[in-house]
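Section 3.1 - Work completed
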Amino acid sequence: MKKYKNNYNKFFTRILILLFLMSSGCSETLDYKIVRADVVKLHDKLMVDGEKAIHNKIALDTFLVRDLPKLKDVDTAAERIKINQLVLLIDEADESMMDWMQNFKADVEGMSNEKAVEYFKSEKQKLVKMDSLYKVALVGSEAYLKKYGVQVQLANDGHDHSKH
């Protein structure tokens, strides 16, 4: 019985190895359209983040000019520095997105599928880095604005474009 079990284990192991070798040799080619769709989806998310960041920047600028000078018992010089640093973070993320959008090529006509996949993967990595920039800018600016109870006006708050 032990000999039978041992042969069965060897046979089963060989089958598993064979299946593994066959599956690794038959790797499916990734369609560039799938990777491009991921890029577009991430871009769309970043556009929303960019809009939030711009609204936060406007709120920071308004707070800096209108409200900060009125505060008592606050080191306004230090607060100005913090606000300027947050604005710079927002500007860096926004400029990065603008540069990317100017250089991005959605049309890969004439490129092989493999080259197109490579191109879109590279573009996705750029967007992932931008996502990190936006996250830092948004988390920092939102925390600062919340600290002083500043409400951020979003594009559609209290204004109906259909009435014009």
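Second construct:
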Amino acid sequence: MTFLVPGNLSLVPSFVLMSELGWVGQLPALVVAGAANAFGTFLLRQFAQASIPDELIESATLDGAGFFRTWWSIVIPMLRGGRALIGIFLIGSRHFIADIAAGALKG
């Protein structure tokens, strides 16, 4: 559904959300607006499915690690490459209309 709706329709709700969070004119607005989209979510999910074996999660559970400990100690470090790829796409993207609307870029 997200790919069918033009991105310009979410500019005003994005700005309202960023202003309520107090992120207008700050870097978190730029990062969250760029990374928390359908493409970033899909890419990170596919990267996680391909790079984190189920046996590793199961062995952490058998060793006594809970959900959050497994997430923090195993999953987050193994997703470093996927997060870097999303960051490269954010830097390389030239869609600054949403970033300007979110108030992250001044000028």
